[in-house]
Amino acid sequence: MKALVLNGIKQLAIEDLEQPKPQDDEVLVKIVYAGICGTDKHLYGGLPGSAPAEPPIVLGHENSGTVAAIGKNVTNVKVGDRVAIDPNIYKDDDFYTRTGRPELSDGLSAVGVTRDGGFEEYTTAPSSVVYSIPENVSFKAAAMIEPISCVIHGINLIKLTPYQKALVIGDGFIGQLFVQALQSYGVHQVDAAGISDEKLKKMKELGAVETFNTLKDDIKSGYDIVVEAVGLPATQKAAIEMAAKGGQVLMFGVGKPDQTFEINTYEIFQKQLTIQGSFINPFAFEDSIALLQSGNIEAESSISHELSLEEVEDCLEGKIENVNKAVVKVSD
User: Fold this and answer.
1) I need a surface site. Which of 63, 170, 199, 215 has the fewest CB within 10 A?
2) What are the residue boundaries of the Alcohol dehydrogenase-like C-terminal domain, all occurrences included (predicted)?
3) Which residues pair with 306 in a beta bridge?
């Protein structure tokens, strides 16, 4: 079968691999679409994702497809089912798993990070992370369930009530998901800030009440919820400054491992701020599927590029322009 293999830092190659066979508790999925994530760019450049990736490895952790075969113990799906794969696999006997925080498990493994993922025609995953998708959710949209679930996990970590006013900093794909998700969870006003007028226009279409181009617009502070979805020191600092008294700041954007930013500790004290990190997506797939099925989140219109496996490296290298969100069409 055809696969895109990461053999080292910035070393990708199309190879012909043997089709994997599912173990007793695994599902073999014929991949239709695989999303390209910022984490893939990190892994391509030798940085860690949810866990370190050790080449040779097939990346791709945002996957949808059809069930091609099942192990003898699998009961939740059958051959021919349309499915999406939650990439993250938790270690049952880890301290963090047993205390309700499996995403922090020291035994974390992940499809497309520590085991072969969706940049190949067929991949395997434990049945426990394979989810059936509704008929009204396309394969392309279903490949977005994983990033949606990461957003939903972030939302689950903060306290939301309808009176709140929220600001999403970051006009990319994740920011676009947050605008929709916060509204779906009842926040009465969601504003957005970014640097692209075109993307901010998209944010408006998705429900943002006010939008701000930070290259030319001033933003007044006073937001009950601020979501930082960029991962740069300047936007992380701004997120704290934009928060109201009693506000919550969700640090969602992924910075470099050695990255720091300057923070006014008195401001945290005086405003009584809550600063919350968010890591991956534990048990958020069911809610994410429901949000897609109901139309409360619309992800497919934010996909700007549909690529082949041969084009993935150009995308990771930044050679393809104006990418909002890219997916790979792996097979029909």
Assistant:
1) 215
2) 174-286
3) 327
